[in-house]
Amino acid sequence: MAVTGALCAAAALLAVVRGVWYRLTRDATKTAIEQAPQITDHARAGVLRTQDLLNWGWFAVAVLLVVLAVLVGLASFGTWLLFGVSALVCVPLGVAGWRFPAAEGLDAVALAFIGCVVVASAVALLWRRPV
Fold first, then answer.
1. Model confidence, pTM
2. How far apart are CA 48 and CA 37, in angstroms?
């Protein structure tokens, strides 16, 4: 279960990196949204506000993943909770971070985050100690 804890901690670190990176490159994200052909003119401000709100979600998920890393990695408890959080919160957040227009490189961090969370969930569920 230490592997799962380490993967959760890595996902939390990626979430923090993405959140800070977004804050530092918000102007580039705004430019990317303004130049995105798939977004209509009247929706651009809403997409930017959504990106700002989702950025707070990245920080919240990082805190949640640290707690789950401790629970799963040290106490071998909460594997189903990790699976549920990753399926219902982390993966949709990562997909939104990947699909929304943003500054260069933020989509790669979101994909790496998704990979860490999915692998952590798989390891937690498949690599269980016999009871």
1. 0.87
2. 15
Task: Read off the pLDDT of residues 55-100 as tens digits, 9 standing for 90 and up.
Answer: 999 999 999 999 888 887 777 777 888 888 888 899 999 999 888 8
Contacts of 105 (CB under 8 A, 6+ apart): 21
Structure tokens at 4: 């799962």
Q: Give the count of alpha carbons within 13 A of 33, CB side only.
A: 21
Distance (Å, rounded) from C-alpha 98 to C-alpha 105? 10
- Give the CA dihedral 105, 16, 116, 49, nearest 10 degrees: -60
Annotated domain spans of the chain? 1-127
